[in-house]
Amino acid sequence: MIDRPVEYPAVDHEVAYLRTEEAPTLQPPGSEIGFRGWLWRNIFASMADYTSAPAAVMSLFMTAITLFTGYAIVWMAWTLLDFTVFSATFTAAEGLKRDACLPNPGACWPFIEAKWYQFMYGFYPPEDVWRVNVCFAVLAAGIGWLIFGPSHRGKVAAFMLFGYPVLAYVLLNGMPVEDNGDLGHIFSGVWFPAIVAAVLFAGWWLADAGRLGDVGSAFAPVLLMGVIVVAIFAVLPLVTMAIDLALGTEVVETNKWGGLTVTLVVAIAGIVVSLPMGMLLALGRRSSAPIIKWSSIIFIEVVRGIPLISVLFFASAMLPYFLEPGVDFNKLLRAMIGVMLFASAYMAEVIRGGLQAMPKGQYEGGMSLGLSYWQQMRLIIMPQALTTVIPGIVNTFIGLFKDTTLVLIISIFDLLGILMATLKDPEWATPTTAYTGYLTIALIYWIFCFGMSRYSVHMERKLDRSHH
Amino acid sequence: MSSMSEGSGQHPSQSSRERSGLAALVFDAKARSLFFQAMLAIAILGMIWVAIGNAADNLAQQGREFGFDFFDRPSDIQILTTFGTWLVGYEPGQNTVFHVFIIGIANTLIISLAGVFFATIWGFLIGIFRLSPNFVLRSFGTIYVELLRNVPLLLQIFFWTALLRIVAPSQRGEFSTLVPGLLQFDAKGIYGPYPIPHDGMGVVMIALMVAIVAAWGFGKWAKKRQDATGQPAPVGLVSIALIIGLPVVVFLIMGRPLSIEWPNFVSEGPVLRRGFERGIGSYIAPEFMALFLALTTYTAAFIAEIVRAGINAVPKGQSEAAAALGLPKGVAMRKVILPQAFRVIVPPLTSQYLNLTKNSSLAAAIGYPELVAVFAGTTLNQVGRAIEIIAIVILVYLVISLATSAFMNWFNNRVKLVER
After folding, report:
1. Which of A183, A232, A264, B124 has the fewest other C-beta atoms within 10 Å?
2. Does A72 touch chain B (CB under 8 A)?
């Protein structure tokens, strides 16, 4: 490199063709901005290149495919609008039923109006329907609080996961607490677990404080678990009795449940059970103990390898054989067990993904603090792992919600099942009844699933930002 | 369970005081792990033991027995004419339960293969639409994906069933044309020509296989030459010429050993006899079409999202580098973007294929005779062997799942990044 001073020509300010002030910035051409620019960039740019033969072919192809797709969108939108609005029947005079809809080629909305109660509640007795509505309202309030609530979200989440199912069960099913006006049998069933729980609690309290020596404190978590399990047996009947006495709810058999109620019951049961079960299975799969590891792997892979229908058939046709002769439990409960098993296996794989994404330093940090395995999992690993896979968890919930429709194959009347049943009603048999019904039910499912998927996208964005 | 506490277990000397006897055993990580594993094993074995005992009691109480001898029983159920019944040559009363089982598997496999094939094509197309700069295509992709993904598949199957019923002519003795001169349909299904091979068709088939092997060999040779010299060869054209040309030439030489049987349409006579004659020509049941359309369009929505995510995962610098090298857009897509996107796409694509196969069991709701519908449904009701039949169904699905996973793992190993 030769370093040589550069000589610049001196600027002569007297020369007329040199500008002394900056030229004003021109507007971009009209084809680049505004609506025209948008149209060009988003539609016509891809079909305007005719400089070479291949490019021309491509442009012509794009023109054709754009025209075709545009036509398809317009045609579908028009068909839908025509069906639901322009040629639809909106009102039916008293007692007219199908005859009101027959003249019009569009949707038969009076059918939906007439069957709406069944879509929502199935065959639930109308005088008791407030119980279902209370369940819906508490659910909506809880979810609303979880998304928009200002504070105490953890407590609300805990209530929705553990308290709400109990409340919903008591409300929907009712409890036969009063046996000939006598409450004694409740207390006779409760006193023994209550005493055991108290003894275990005392043991845990002593052991946790180190009064029972090293061995004692090693067993403290086991004692605590025992306290929780036994206390559930002691407290649950009392709680349900209290709610029941306060509300005076009669038993409504599950074969009267139906519609959206059953769909939500099955979906929420699946969600509530699959999350903890999935966590345990995911931890089990990553365990170094071979028996725990392989039983988790076999369960997860077998359940994920077979269709939900065969799990439901298993629960409805095969399970009764494996129970004590004479023991027969509820059909809905069996379907729910099938859905829970199925969802747990999928949830386990999602959570395992989160666990695998944890850097090794997190485990090592926990170990160096002297935390036990369960303390590390509870305080360090699980909170982070679950947060990273929230989108995956929500997607599993969406899949679970859609999969609840399969219970209709073992003749449980969920939302879709009740639609299929009402479509057989000859009083409403018109050529368009089925499509009206499918459209309405699809819209209900779509609102739930799309809402959940938006939430998942929202969480994904929020989490993504926190990493930068 | 114990890997984390091993630290304290392996160095007892470092703890403040030596422990002995029971205390040492309680604090020994290995002993603890063994204890919990033994508990789990006992619990699982105990549950299995109780379940088997109960099953034996229940079966004895109902006067039934356990065994697989029901496979030899004659089966007199009516089965919809499908690929499986064609394969087995099913006649009610002439065949056994085992044949019904085979029909179920064949029908599951054929709907899954057809679904996987078309869902992949359709899904890739929609996925590319969603990334297109063209507003119309992009919106179509978005609407499609968001509509189909969020509605239960079973509802979509019912919808397609109802739609096919309304599209097809409802009167007996009427039909509509799907592909002029080739495929017609009425309310009972789609009818088309059926090829009947004569002597010499085997030679044509052999020629076809030879052509495929030759095309594959030519591809290998061309790739080797291109790697060595940089000279490309027209592999696509040569392969198509080989695979189509060679069998056609042999076919002509052998004197056209194939005749076509056309469906026979009866438009006169008693009303109930009108329509297409059964057993002549080839036939696709509307149940198959409804299930096929529902599975394909539904799974394609998921595949589209996978494809979109995969292409988005390729850094923008890659397409810019391809453009800087002067590669045309199509070549850049084929040679630069897609091979890298495939690494991201293949694993979730595998689980979509498995989902499609498992979802084909929803046929039970509309009566397409696949494994669950015809074996775990109709046959179970007839012979009543719930334990055996459901266990077999679960096994078959596991085998299909494992085989698909194995194949896709092999494919994944081929496309995944080879690092130096």
Report:
1. A183
2. yes
